[in-house]
Amino acid sequence: MGKIILTGDRPTGKLHLGHYVGSLRRRVELQNSGEFEKIFIMIADAQALTDNADNPEKIRQNIIEVALDYLSAGLDPEKVTIFIQSQVPELCELAFYYMNLVTVQRLQRNPTVKQEIQLRGFSDCEDDEVQSRKGIPVGFFTYPISQASDITAFRATTVPVGVDQAPMIEQTREIVHKFNSVYGETLVTPEMLLPENAVCCRLPGTDGKAKMSKSLGNCIYLSDTSKEIKKKVNSMFTDPQHLQITDPGHVEGNVVFTYLDAFSTEEHFARFLPEYANLDEMKDHYRRGGLGDGTCKKFLYSIMEDILQPIRERRAQYQKNIPLVYEILRKGSETARAEAARTLADVRKAMRIDYFDDADLIAEHTRKYQD
Ligand code: TRP
């Protein structure tokens, strides 16, 4: 059987460089590898609503932004199915049945959900709820189960995600195991596919903070203009002890070098900074002293432009034809729905709740009441 990918993102904002190195770039490679029979990329609006109940308009506005980011990063709707989660209602029905296979206690142990509860300021104490802090929405608490539906509905063998999603994949595998042992072999057990190198797992923000995040205002967006990128690169955090060009510098914790680690290739050196053959040589010079931050930033800016300009150009093309983008999403959602419906039919059959198609059941009850 062929390998199938499912992955996705919550549409809570435009995608940034962290998303690009962490997942988008990889997805485009996977798309072009020819290794996969089918690839589904989901805009997880329903999951985003689980902790944005009071701000549905934010989600509604960001679906198109994420779709534009996908297409401009190089995802090709001829090769991958891009769809909107809420437009596949079969996913809800699957989740409803899976809920019977998971305990409250198991959900409470999910480390990512625990962390998100902290970050969102949800309270898990009943007294607080009465006073001021908001309690945990049930939909939010159970989203790992909904995520298991997303993955299994498409019979995904492979789920490319960041490490923060590991608990969701583990939960999905447990649900698959439980379902198959109770109802018979039906669902496919997925594997997680992590990013290849460490820098790609977590690109720091332009301010050097651990993570690029919209709320910290330290992002480079895929949709940024050249001017915005120049400004952001120039204001990047470097080495506070590297005051004079001749001072020895540190590359660890120096954001410009972290970004060069993530993005620079020997080809970039040949084209934009031929004084060095590769990043190691450049780092050596910086450490010795004599290499200024200005030169490093100029080089990084050239690389950023090299990567982002084609993305920006594709975005501009798609932005001129928004109805086409919605059409891509509509068609993708139809394809996804047909696929999920097949799995749902299998699930109903395995659970033996397909009563009207079950001739044996009707015959059995006919006999029961004969004479
Ligand atoms: N939880 C993922 C995120 O926050 C989004 C998501 C929803 C997802 N369903 C999924 C990812 C299924 C992979 C597979 O980014």
Short key terms for the protein model shown above:
371 residues; mainly alpha; Rossmann fold; Tyrosyl-Transfer RNA Synthetase; 2 domains; three-stranded parallel sheet; two-stranded parallel sheet; 5 strands; elongated; binds tryptophan
What is this structure's SSE topology?
Blueprint (H helix, E strand, L loop, with lengths): L3 E6 L7 H17 L4 E6 L1 H5 L6 H18 L7 E4 L5 H9 L5 H5 L2 H10 L5 H6 L6 H4 L1 H11 L4 E3 L5 H18 L7 E3 L4 H4 L24 H9 L20 H9 L2 H7 L6 H10 L4 H27 L2 H30 L7 H10 L3
Parallel strand pairs: 1-2, 2-3, 4-5
Helix pairs in contact: 3-16, 4-9, 4-17, 9-10, 12-16, 13-16
Bound molecules: tryptophan.
Tryptophan binds next to strand 1 and helix 9.
- Shape, please? elongated
Assembly type of the chains comes to single chain
Q: Give the termini distance in whole angstroms.
A: 50 Å
> Helix count, per DSSP?
18
- The Cα radius of gyration reads 24 Å
| Average pLDDT metric | 94
Would you give an account of this structure?
By secondary structure, the chain is mostly helical. The chain has 2 domains: 4-203 and 321-362, Rossmann fold (3-Layer(aba) Sandwich), CATH 3.40.50; 226-317, Tyrosyl-Transfer RNA Synthetase (Orthogonal Bundle). It is built from 18 helices and 5 strands. The protein has helices spanning 17-33, 45-49, 56-73, 90-98, 104-108, 111-120, 126-131, 138-141, 143-153, 166-183, 198-201, 226-234, 255-263, 266-272, 279-288, 293-319, 322-351, 359-368; strands at residues 4-9, 38-43, 81-84, 158-160, 191-193. The strands form 2 sheets. It has a 3-stranded parallel sheet with strand order 1-2-3. It has a two-stranded parallel ribbon with strand order 4-5. Helix 10 links the parallel strand 4 (158-160) and strand 5 (191-193). Helix 3 (56-73) crosses helix 16 (293-319) and helix 4 (90-98) crosses helix 9 (143-153). The longest helix is centred in the last third of the chain and has 30 residues, at 322-351. It is elongated, with a radius of gyration of 24 Å. It starts with a strand and ends with a helix. Tryptophan (TRP) is lined by residues 6-10, 44, 47, 147, 150-151, 159, 161, 165.
